[in-house]
Predict the 3D structure of the following.
Amino acid sequence: MATAVGLFALAENIDYPLEISVPLAEELQREHLQTAQIQPDMKEALSGAARLQVPDSKIRFLYESALQTLVLLSAAEVVPGPYTYRRFWFRDACFMINAMLTAGLTERCRRLLQNFFSYQKHSGYFQSQEGEWDSNGQVLWILNRFQQLTAQQLPEPWIQAVIKGAEWIRKKRISRNKRIPHAGLLPAGFSAEHLGPNDYYYWDDFWGLAGLLAAARLAGRFHSSKEQNRLQDEAADFRTVIFDSIAAIPEPRKNGAIPASPYRRMDAGAVGSLVADYPLQLVEPGDPRILQTVAFLLENCFYSGGFFQDMIHSGINPYLTLCIAQTLLRSGDTGFRPLVEKVAGLASPTGQWPEAIHPHTGGGCMGDGQHGWAAAEWVMMIRNLFLREEGQKLIIGGGIFPEWLQKETDISFGPTQTPFGPIFIRILRKGDDYLLAFEAHWHNDAPLVETRIPGFHHETLTHFDRPWKLKALES
């Protein structure tokens, strides 16, 4: 948390006295001294969290630092930074809680989610800031994700808040009967500030759609099939409206991609449209519109290997660079790796990232120097290199760096939460053989599991009670 450092060259084997004075007289004279709730130490807070073992000390150090950052920034409620950003945003909180969930910090996440409901208005709006229309979808999505990953029963008040929040999305949508490009979408808003000034952002709509789908699932599980069907119908209508709006954009303005809004040309704000792919999976892997959006961003909006956001942030953005990497990973494109390595190279010596990085100095130019969303995306990136969800199946090892397998050490990750249950995976080297070992505790039946480890045949696993021998590709 230090904001400055003093460095002094000292000769070896000589004692130097050091005196530090911290005046407390003024504090002690107050009638009511502030008391802090006792928090567990870092070791205790991270006990049981997913562990990473790879023969790359920097990758491992950044993962451990990112987990510690998430814990430090979620002592009471989630905040995206320790100083400038020491206030609550639903947007950052949902990304950060998602990362902590997958890392196994379940009870911390449940406590943090409980705080969400104090922000819900009578209208059903989850408001942390005025005029931002992505929050309801984000809250419903993360509540559903919490239930999926933990298999816990949700309290009845949570479910009522979910249904109320979904109803807010329905009512907030603009009438679809109007002959305008944004008919049926959410209103113009500021939302994710890196997209630009107020507009009818597809970012908001994709989150709203994901929120309705999440609410429908939770309603069917904990409320009624009638409410589930109603919300599914609303989600289906919203999906149709969104993609009809995208299809209606003149081709010269979109070039097969998805701009930030129906009224925008392709620009850096289009990065927000990638949320339909990661993390929401509203489209199939490799969707042509998504890949064309990525191609545009790579060609026009990158500087020195990282995504340069020229609106408001005016710097290289670590977490948006990683979001693009996630889309490439999901599509099976190995181009994700240079982006991961770039973000690793942008980290400070203490393993932190600011929200945006000055392209010339390499220091921060936006927000705090210890940014929670950036830490969350690093945790999710590392986790998805080893294990990611794709619909109703698990993909193992699709992003593992090939050279990790060439060392004389095992590599591992876990235990990490999935919708099918927690799982810990290890790749063991026995001479020239490689074995994939599991420790899984499925919620129900074992899911479909596929391996996509570089250098080995892709296989569908049929057992998990003993190590699976990987079949190397012929050189």
Q: What stands out?
A: Residues 402-469 form one domain. The first strand starts at residue 51 and ends at 53. The chain has two domains: 42-387, 402-469.
